[in-house]
Design a protein that fits this description.
This protein is mainly beta. Helices cover about 0% and strands about 60% of the residues. The chain has a single domain, classed as Nucleic acid-binding proteins (OB fold (Dihydrolipoamide Acetyltransferase, E2P)), CATH 2.40.50.140. Strands 1-2-3-5-4 form a five-stranded mixed barrel.
């Protein structure tokens, strides 16, 4: 099972959050570190807020776009 860590960028849906996962890769030709950003929809029972850093794990599909579930909130947003 895949686990990812990312930042909540939207929590406007019911029990669903949009999490932005940033990873860095080395460019194959230029050997420079490049940031890659991807957004995932995740099922959220923990009521995470905007800006929280969350850990999510892969589950069986819950809907057309939801394949992850928020397991824990690792860092709360500073407000």
């Amino acid at each position: 099972m895949k686990t990812l860590v990312g930042k909540v960028i939207s929590n406007k849906m019911e029990k669903t959050v949009v999490v932005e996962v940033v990873r860095t890769i080395t460019h194959p030709k230029y050997n420079k570190r490049v940031r890659r950003v991807k957004k995932y929809h995740a099922h959220d029972e923990l009521k995470s807020k905007l800006g929280d850093t969350v850990k999510m794990k892969e589950i069986k599909p819950m809907s057309k776009t939801k394949f992850f579930k928020v397991v824990e909130i690792t860092k709360n947003a500073t407000a």
